[in-house]
Amino acid sequence: MPAGVTWGQYIAFSSAAMLSMLAGSQIVHQYYKPLRDLNEYINKELRSLPDNVQVKIRQELQDEGILNKT
Fold first, then answer.
1. Torsion angle in degrees (nearest 10) through CA of 42, 40, 64, 34
2. Which residues span the domain enclosing 51?
3. Is the pTM of this model over 0.85?
């Protein structure tokens, strides 16, 4: 193991790091709600593209279930 760390210490540190990372991302999504306005953001960005590209991308996103049909 790197730096003379035992397997037990390595696994304990890795588990603690993963749990804190997962808890942190969950807190961010509950507090800031970053995906709430995703459809508005996508539509705003699509307006800057040419019409033929907008239609194609919008259809692909709707087929994948990412963009709501409007």
1. 90
2. 37-70
3. no
